[in-house]
């Protein structure tokens, strides 16, 4: 099962001219993209199916494998589209169709913050890796440590399911802790998360299928 969760690593885009070319203008006359440097890079694109775009400071680009992902990027997938991103050394991220995620903050070995604006994602963080990631959205806040977790539409609600490790889910001022193979449901923004429960095999398969 883990074979489906972690995209095959690819080398990141070279720094310098190639980064500036992402803006669609020659490097010699590009000034608006100065911030898109190695210091601002959060990761890279490992796989793409369909159309997936990223927008940073009103500059929109269509993503292809090996493209750099930058801090502040809003990554959006179209209908019937999929994407696999690699963030740092220890984190992979898969997006399903009609997903929107912002890379608010990411520091290698120190964690970061992702905001899920819609759709489904599957985040895989290497067990034992350092740093804490947080996923924010209308459902609340998820704190991730060395964990694989699915977040997205499932059975008519927002479902959160832990592949391995442990996460804390805070929603509607109530917190629940999920261990491996446990999930919780959030019926609507502001609703309380349900008590942890084991998901059935069919529901797990459907969750994976929505992001792979």
Strand content: over 45%
Low-confidence stretches: 1-38
Strands, total number = 16
General shape: globular
Largest sheet: 16 strands, mixed
Q: Radius of gyration in whole Å, from Cα?
A: 17 Å
Helix content: under 10%
| Helix/strand structural class | mainly beta
Write down the oligomeric state. Answer: single chain
The secondary-structure element order is: HHEEEEEEEEEEEEEEEEH
> Overall pLDDT, averaged?
84
- Total number of helical segments? 3
Distance between the termini: 12 Å
Give me the secondary-structure topology.
Elements: H1 2-5, H2 17-21, E1 41-49, E2 52-56, E3 59-62, E4 68-70, E5 74-77, E6 82-87, E7 91-95, E8 100-107, E9 111-118, E10 121-125, E11 132-137, E12 140-154, E13 157-171, E14 174-179, E15 182-186, E16 197-198, H3 201-209
Parallel strand pairs: 9-11
Antiparallel strand pairs: 1-4, 1-6, 2-3, 2-5, 5-8, 6-7, 7-10, 8-9, 10-12, 11-12, 12-13, 13-14, 13-15, 15-16
How would you describe this structure to a colleague?
- It is a single chain.
- By secondary structure, the protein is mainly beta.
- 8% of the residues lie in helices and 50% in strands.
- It has a 16-stranded mixed β-sheet that branches.
- The longest helix is centred in the last third of the chain and has 9 residues, at 201-209.
- It starts with a helix and ends with a helix.
- Residues 1-38 have low confidence and may be disordered.
In short:
With 212 residues, the protein is mostly beta strands.
